[in-house]
Design a protein that fits this description.
Distance between the termini: 37 Å
Number of helices: 14
Strand order of the largest sheet: 5-1-2-6-7
Helix content: 40-55%
Shape: elongated
Radius of gyration: 28 Å
Largest sheet: 5 strands, antiparallel
Strand content: 5-15%
């Protein structure tokens, strides 16, 4: 009877390490150019509050007065300044004594032709900013022929909206600005697509996918065994010192890396689609606001004024900066939600009767799913919206990423200077040494990150091509 000898554990470990070194190299080759730019632009983005405080203090801040005027005065002042034909989208009332009132108007719908040459009317805003208040400048009411089954989620002011900043004490219009031209939007676009169209977002997604691979393989290669130590040794210099600090800092920042990469992938295109599919299949979406909720139209009487509506909303909502949308049509409702993403536990959606101010719908933090809570915390953390400690942590992380990338290439060029091939050598049988768990993990990552799967297939083709070429040379 012939038995197959079990592979030597040391030889098996060496084969697997050679394979992981190879994969780690490929991951670095693909990810680091984009990852370096993402780290630099990300560091710029996290200081948005300080930068905007300098750039827009004349718009965002006012000198506190004795008594604020009714909110209606600020809305009326913005109405007079808004371009003809534009539609009132929402109002952000002053929350603190030094805040200005922000009144957002969106341009009129644009007619586009479909494939058959018929005109289709696109919406007046492009940000997914919730149900439009459809309040034209010429008439403060509007309607929809076919309301959707659910109101769209509202994530702030539309990028194409013109925002008018009004002093709440004097109703003076301090100025106006297209929301998409603010630094926060410019820096976000720089970070996510290098100021190109959304079609370029794949580059960041590709980098994030391979950086996840680089992180996992790097942790495995660093993992102490035998005489190897986890901490950098004193007195080490040259390439070995670069290697030890490269590995150590990569592992120290690994938890942060997973959080940043995962939250970044949730709003990417292809991996984000997979996340959203899994969310919907597991019923982990945020509470959906029914669109059929309507106000009871009285025989006589007018809708609440902006000031009365604000006071009614304040009685029902958490103590946080909010965005308010006016009723759409006679049976429309007042709608409000939070503006400050730095307090995720204060997240809410609120609908009030347009005439009585009675609460018709409310959804708060307790109604959020586990996925909704995770993203409500993870995404603001990724953006540094939890305050100075969050910014400091992200600064350290960003600098650590830059050091890891630079030190990795420093080691590569030092190897090349010694005449050693830059590509890590694969030991015979390396591919066959892969454990079933590693194969399963790779398949899960390919399923979650389609760009990783596609690019990994191209890497596989390159590896096969290199193997075939080497065989031809040897024969």
């Amino acid at each position: 009877m012939v038995t197959t000898a079990s592979p030597n554990p040391a030889a098996l470990r060496a084969q697997r390490r050679s394979l992981l070194w190879r994969i780690h190299f490929w991951a670095a080759l693909i990810a680091t150019p984009f990852g370096l730019l993402a780290a630099i632009t990300g560091i710029l983005y996290i200081f948005t509050p300080q930068i905007e405080g300098v750039l827009y203090s004349h718009l965002d801040q006012v000198r506190p007065g004795v008594n604020a005027l009714p909110l209606d005065d600020s809305v009326d002042a913005a109405l007079k300044a808004a371009p003809t034909g534009w539609t009132l989208h929402s109002v952000v009332p002053a929350f603190t004594g030094t805040d200005s009132v922000r009144v957002a108007y969106v341009p009129p719908p644009v007619a586009k032709k479909d494939a058959a040459g018929k005109e289709e009317v696109s919406g007046g805003h492009n940000h997914g900013g919730g149900a439009s208040t459809a309040t034209p400048k010429a008439a403060e009411a509007g309607g929809m022929a076919k309301p959707p089954a659910f109101l769209r989620p509202n994530f702030g002011l539309p990028n194409n909206s013109m925002v008018f900043y009004v002093n709440p004490y004097t109703a003076e219009v301090l100025g106006s600005m297209v929301q998409g031209e603010r630094f926060v939007n410019w820096s976000r676009k720089l970070h996510s697509s290098y100021l190109q169209s959304d079609g370029w977002r794949w580059m960041i997604e590709l980098a994030a996918s391979w950086m996840m691979v680089m992180l996992i393989t790097g942790v495995y290669l660093w993992w102490p065994h035998g005489q190897q130590t986890a901490l950098p040794k004193r007195g080490t210099s040259g390439r070995m010192a670069w290697k030890q600090w490269h590995s150590f800092l990569g592992v120290v920042l690994s938890v942060m890396s997973i959080v940043i990469l995962t939250t970044g992938l949730t709003w990417s295109k292809y991996a984000g689609d997979q996340v959203r599919l899994a969310r919907d299949l597991t019923n982990q979406g945020s509470p959906r606001i029914p669109a059929h909720i309507k106000s009871t139209v009285p025989a006589t009487g007018a809708p609440l004024s902006w000031q009365s509506a604000l006071e009614a909303l304040r009685r029902e909502a958490p103590e946080i900066s909010m965005q308010v949308m006016a009723p759409k049509g006679p049976d429309g409702v007042w709608r409000a939600n939070q503006m400050d993403k730095g307090q995720p536990d204060q997240r809410f959606d609120l609908l009030l009767d347009a005439y009585t101010g009675q609460r018709l719908y409310y959804s708060g933090w307790d109604k959020q799913t586990a996925f909704g809570k995770a993203t409500a915390i993870g995404i603001p953390f990724h953006r540094g919206e939890f305050g100075w400690w969050n910014q400091a942590l992200l600064l350290v992380f960003g600098m650590g990423v830059i050091f890891s990338i630079v030190s990795g290439w420093q080691m590569y060029f030092k190897r090349r200077a010694r005449g050693v091939s830059g590509m890590p050598t694969l030991l015979p049988g390396a591919w066959k040494s892969t454990s079933p768990y590693a194969v399963l993990g790779a398949l899960v990552m390919f399923l979650c990150m389609p760009l990783l799967a596609l690019s990994a297939a191209l890497v596989g083709v390159a590896e096969l091509g290199g193997w075939w070429f080497q065989r031809r040379l040897s024969t």
